[in-house]
Design brief:
With about 140 residues, this protein is of the alpha/beta class. The chain is built from four helices and five strands. The protein has a single domain (about 5-135), classed as 2-Layer Sandwich (Nucleotidyltransferase, domain 5), CATH 3.30.420. The protein is about 40% helix and about 25% strand. A five-stranded mixed sheet has the order 3-2-1-4-5, with helices on both faces. The radius of gyration is 14 Å and the shape is globular. The mean pLDDT is about 90.
Length: about 140
């Protein structure tokens, strides 16, 4: 049995979400500060190992016209450092605004803790992947 991890990779922070063992639900795990990529990779790989993760879903921020920009390249370069894991890219367009709406609906004030938005975005990315692959 294994889990799937999703990452919302930003330039400052990385939101992390994990599936359950049935690959049905997504839960927020943590937010990793991205001050040093090597440290961030080490933390992600430890979370993956500790939680029996087999696949990592990385959100890719496509432009609204479907093209990829500099941020997408940054995400791909970061994901390439996650050695030993299959990395699958998932379109993450509009997940941050959806995450903010979800947090507002739960009456969670995220204005002073943007990491909450990153974690919620990672959950949305994982939910998209799981719903598409569990049909």
């Amino acid at each position: 049995m294994y889990k799937v991890m999703a990452l919302d990779i930003g330039t400052k922070r990385i939101g992390v979400a994990l599936s359950d063992f049935l690959l049905v639900t997504a839960s927020g795990h943590s937010c990793i500060e991205r001050t040093n990529d090597d440290d961030a990779v080490t933390q992600i790989l430890k979370i993956a190992k500790d939680n029996h993760v087999e696949k990592i879903i990385a959100g890719i921020p496509y432009n609204m016209d479907g093209t990829q920009g500099a941020q997408a390249d940054d995400c791909k370069n970061f994901a390439a450092k996650l050695k030993g894991y299959e990395v699958i890219f998932e379109d993450e367009r509009l997940t941050s605004s959806e995450a903010e709406e979800n947090l507002r609906a739960k009456k969670i004030d995220f204005r002073k803790n943007k990491g909450l938005v990153d974690i919620e975005s990672a959950c949305i990315i994982l939910e998209q992947y799981l719903s598409r692959n569990n049909k």
